[in-house]
UniProtKB/TrEMBL annotation:
GO terms for cellular component: plasma membrane. GO terms for molecular function: glycosyltransferase activity. The chain crosses the membrane at residues 242-265. It comes from the Bacteria. Its main location: membrane. This is Sugar transferase. InterPro entries: Glyco_trans_2-like, Glycosyltransferase_2, Nucleotide-diphossugar_trans. Residues 10-172 form the Glycosyltransferase 2-like domain. Pfam families: Glycos_transf_2.
């Protein structure tokens, strides 16, 4: 029996990336050629149009060659969900996830694939950014986030690792079984397990436009990560609630003794005000946090699909000559 040619699926979500369509198609073409030359893999490209409002999809369709598919979602669902939509369409022996904005280079992609091919023991090779360019504040807050979220579970979410990774088909299939609607991919990759290996890289500059992550977006995303992957904040809050109540009790005792045994008139309102404000603020924060968890629980309990596909365009033509 002739040996079947192994296949690599490339999954790329895009949202309003018309400006990078041509460059990305060229990168994919080179990648396809190299992957076939070095590792003997056949490549399928699966792009997910995450509700673009510009002509991205048409531009990509025009620029792509070889075997490709563009899954157009019915609206913008967010990158995390778009990645799932792509994984759902994969069937290859290996799956590579990369961005369309040319921040993920040909060289690093090939390095990831090479590492996976050479290490039969490893199931996932992910690209880890070195945070050289990041501000101190940003990298410290990331550190804090990961140490907090990792302190209360059996698996570790690695720092500085994103969706840029290559995995075996078995891992991709396992990931598609995780149908969380409010998705936090880093957590899901870690939850799914398997053996991971990191390759450190420096992401390139975005070709055009800006990152879709604002500071506020990042904060909301971290809250979501916490609410779906960690009970630590709830534990800290209930414990500190207990501590505050205990301190209040002790203070109450002190006042009791002062008044009844020593006859000291305790001035009332400053301590009252402090207690009200501190406890009030604490309560509000706690309520908000519980609300966050309830919101995640509510979204997950609705029997809705994670995303909706508008249509799928595909092509299986010849490789286009260098455009
Ligand atoms: N993206 C997407 N849906 C979104 C936001 C982003 O499909 O709602 C795509 C985007 O087009 C790009 C990739 O996800 O291909 C990474 O997005 P971005 O460059 O904004 O993120 P960053 O590189 O800053 O992490
Ligand atoms: Mg980017």
């Amino acid at each position: 029996m002739p040996e079947r040619q192994p296949t690599l699926d490339i999954v790329t979500p895009f949202w309003n990336e018309a400006a990078s369509a041509e460059g990305f198609a060229r990168l994919l073409l080179e990648l396809e050629t190299e992957v076939s030359r070095r590792f003997g893999f056949a490549t399928r490209k699966i792009l997910i149009d995450d509700g673009s409002v510009d002509d991205s999809a048409a531009r990509f369709a025009e620029a792509l060659g070889g075997e490709w598919e563009i899954v157009r979602l019915s609206r913008n669902f967010g990158k995390e969900v778009a990645v799932l939509a792509g994984l759902d369409r994969t069937c290859g022996d290996m799956v590579l996830i990369m961005d369309a904005d040319l921040q993920h280079s040909l060289e690093v992609s090939l390095k990831l694939i090479g590492e996976l091919v050479e290490n039969p023991d490893v199931d996932v090779v992910y690209a880890r950014t070195n945070r050289e360019g990041a501000s101190w504040k940003r990298s410290q807050s990331a550190k804090l986030f990961y140490s907090l979220i990792n302190s209360s579970q059996r698996f570790d979410i690695p720092e500085n690792a994103g969706d840029f990774r290559v995995m075996r088909g078995t891992v991709a299939r396992a990931l598609t079984k995780l149908r969380d609607k409010r998705r936090f991919n880093k957590g899901l990759y870690a939850w799914a397990g398997f053996r991971h290996k990191a390759v450190t890289y420096t992401p390139g500059q975005r070709v055009s436009g800006t990152s879709k992550w604002s500071r506020l977006n990042l904060l909301a995303f971290s809250m979501e990560g916490f609410a779906s992957f960690s009970v630590l904040p709830l534990r800290i809050l209930s414990l500190s609630g207990l501590a505050v109540a205990l301190a209040g009790g002790i203070y109450g005792l002190k006042v009791f003794f002062e008044v009844f045994f020593y006859g000291i008139a305790v001035p009332g309102y400053p301590s009252l005000l402090v207690a009200i404000v501190v406890l009030g603020g604490f309560n509000l924060a706690l309520l908000g946090l519980i609300g966050e968890y309830v919101w995640v629980a509510l979204s997950e309990s609705k029997d809705r699909p994670v995303y909706i596909v508008r249509d799928i365009v595909s092509g299986a033509g010849e490789q286009k000559p260098d455009a």
